[in-house]
Amino acid sequence: MKRVILIVLDSVGIGRAPDALQYGDENSNTIGNIAKSLVGFDLPNMANLGLGHISDTINIKPAKQLQGAYGEAIEVSAGKDTTTGHWEIAGLNLSQAFPTFPEGFPEHIIDAFERAIGKKSIGNYAASGTTIINELGDEHVESKRPIVYTSADSVFQIAAHEEVISLEELYDICAKAREILKDDYAVGRVIARPFIGISGRYERTSNRRDFSLMPNGKTVLALAKDHGLEVRGVGKISDIFSGDGITHSYPTKSNEKGIDKTIQLIHEDFEGIIMTNLVDFDTLYGHRRNVKGYGACLEAFDHRLPDIIKAMKEDDALIITADHGNDPTYSGTDHTRERVPILVYGSKIKSGVNVGTRETFADIGASICDLLGLQSTAYGNSFANELLKLENATN
Q1: Do residues 115 and 59 both lie within one domain?
Q2: pLDDT of 10-37, one tens digit each?
Q3: 13 pairs with which residues across the strands?
Q4: Are residues 276 and 161 in the same domain?
Q5: Which residues pair with 157 in a beta bridge?
Q6: CB 3.0–4.6 Å: which of 45, 192, 283, 391 could bond 209 by disulfide?
Q7: Could you count the other beta carbons within 10 Å of the beta carbon of residue 146?
Q8: Extended beta strands in the chain, E state
Q9: Is the same domain home to 121 and 174?
Q10: pLDDT (tens digit, 9 = 90+) per residue, 185-220?
Q11: Which of 191, 212, 233 is the last residue of a domain?
Q12: DSSP classification of residue 21
């Protein structure tokens, strides 16, 4: 194979992980519960790749004739956040979860942050982003102080009105926070959360930016780049990996734009990896517990899947997976600890192959290494040989 297109459907889990009880997520099933909740819900193109064959609990009707290979993966790293999930997909293992601060950040951290940015902040508690900008938005506009908040995830989020604190200044503030949050306070991500609007009608914009830690080892992306291959990140991929292993980055502001950019890159002539994150499932619908919106978003992706496949070249392999769950039928607003799908397609990929339940997301990264002829990642066991048609198995 010359190229792998890896699409991460952010938060599209397929049922509770074996340790879901430890996370309070024992009844979570993002796709399965959406399918049960919505009349007429259908994902025929993903079903054609094997989605309905993975498990009965997904509640997707199995296709009669498969066009791709399929399976599922269990997360072994501690945590259920975006960074942890993506890093494990790429071949890493986090034995210790990133720290969380449900009661807010310690006073000495906030003091250091305020000294670094030269102004006071407001907030510093756990909250929904859409809620806190309306709770503190007026005070922020009047005082011009950034809003600091967190969530159940390992995040230090900074919200600011785009007409009060410019995007450039907000990003600089976040970069300074990233420098401060180290060691015991090394959250997975510092996130810029710009918003617009007027009192009582504030709303977040698509100009979010994530400032992640550097990966704790060699990912498949870094291995590919070191080998001289192109690694093109679409959406927030470069942010998630702090630019490590990325040769070209293409930030996008919606799933639709992310899909369009992915298709454009597939049409180009280069060897390596295209890794795309489609975040709308998580940000717009999962956290907001919008079942109907999440279902429509999944159907919209499914509708575009044939366009992605049509653009592929003979030596391309497409892998579709997810980084965690975010069941919109579940209580709270947090991610859910779930298994994730593995769907694989390509002209040199066997159809109807079940790669089974993989013991770590890292098997995906290890398999990409094999498909591209790279040195393997430190974690994960490849299932590439199960995928390849016989005439290509030794190529």
Answers
A1: no
A2: 999 999 999 999 999 999 999 999 999 9
A3: none
A4: no
A5: 149, 191
A6: 192
A7: 27
A8: 3-9, 69-73, 122-126, 147-150, 155-161, 189-196, 203-204, 209-212, 230-234, 248-250, 272-278, 316-321, 340-345, 354-358
A9: yes
A10: 999 999 999 999 999 999 999 899 999 999 999 999
A11: 212
A12: G
User: Cα–Cα distance between 195 and 205 in angstroms, integer?
Assistant: 5
Alpha-carbon distance of 75 to 339, in angstroms, equals 7
Identify whether residues 385 and 250 lie together within a single domain. Answer: yes
- Cα 161 to chain centroid distance, Å, stands at 25
- The answer to whether residues 260 and 371 belong to one domain is yes
Q: Which residue has the higher pLDDT, 333 or 228?
A: 228
State mean pLDDT over 285-308: 98
Q: Which two tokens stand for residue 2?
A: 């010359």
Residue-range definition of the domain harbouring residue 375: 3-94+214-392
| pLDDT tens column, 225-258 | 999 999 999 999 999 999 999 999 999 999 999 9
Distances (CA, A) of 99 to 72, 84, 181, 183: 27, 12, 10, 10
Which residues are CB-contacts of 169 (< 8 A; sequence separation ≥ 6)?
160
Core vs surface per residue 158-193: b (16+ CB within 10 A) or e:
bbbbeebbeeeebbebbebbbebbeeebebbbbbbb
pLDDT of 394 > 50? The answer is no
Same domain for 225 and 83: yes
Residue 395: pLDDT over 60: no
pTM: 0.92
Q: How confident is the model at residue 97 (pLDDT cuts 50, 70, 90)?
A: confident
Half-sphere exposure of 150 (CA within 13 A, CB side): 20
Give the amino acid at 13: G
Residue 392 has pLDDT above 80, yes or no: no
Question: Domain boundary at 212, 242, 274, which?
Answer: 212
Nearest-angstrom CA–CA distance, 334 and 155:
12
Q: How many residues does the chain have?
A: 395
> CATH number of the domain that 113 lies in?
3.30.70.1250
Does the pLDDT value for residue 390 go beyond 70?
A: no
Q: According to DSSP H, which parts of 144-207 are helical?
A: 167-180
